[in-house]
Amino acid sequence: MLDDMQVLGREGSLSTTQNKVLRNTYALLSLTMIPTVIGALVGMKMNFAFAALHPFMFAIGAMAVIYGMFFAINANRNSSIGVVLLLGLTFLLGLMLGPILQHALNLNNGGQIVGLAAGGTGVILMTMAGIATTTKKDFSFMGKFLMVGIILLIVASLANIFLQIPAMQLMLSGVGVLLFSGFILYDVSRIVNGGETNYVMATLGLYMSIYNLFTSLLHLLMGLMGSND
Fold this sequence. Notes:
By secondary structure, the protein is an all-alpha fold.
């Protein structure tokens, strides 16, 4: 009987820990939206001529900076420095939204498209997070498939910088929407089931899934609905 009570106590403690990580993750995730929006507003006023002239070099350089920040955040995940670095990363990623937002808003229905992309991202986030939280099912089995998918998506996206095939871009955007929706489910499931116990790293993973979902959805909607008439 005593052993059973001890087991129940440990399970209750684990549940409390997971709930705390989830709450802290959502709180920090909300905070990351501030530097992201500021970065996007600044980025929309910047000149990205170099990125337009040398898209491949810009993409490789951006990826190097982003992954360098990932490493730094991971190394400082247990301190406030990790939070500061995470907020800095979200500002940089906001800057990188500048060109696509400029392009989208130059369309006649650009405001509608951006709004739909943002709204769609929110709906998918709530749906996937709701599934993971309410069912408490362990979706960790998706990890390998998602990682293979993201590698293939990156390679194909880099290739299309040279190929410039609109249909391929549209297809990659659609795949990205599905892939990053899956990542949100996977990320929240890991928190709920105790696979991720550090809220800084949990926020980083979830933020990147949301960010890439939004950009994929925005590209997809621009391809399907964009109008210059």
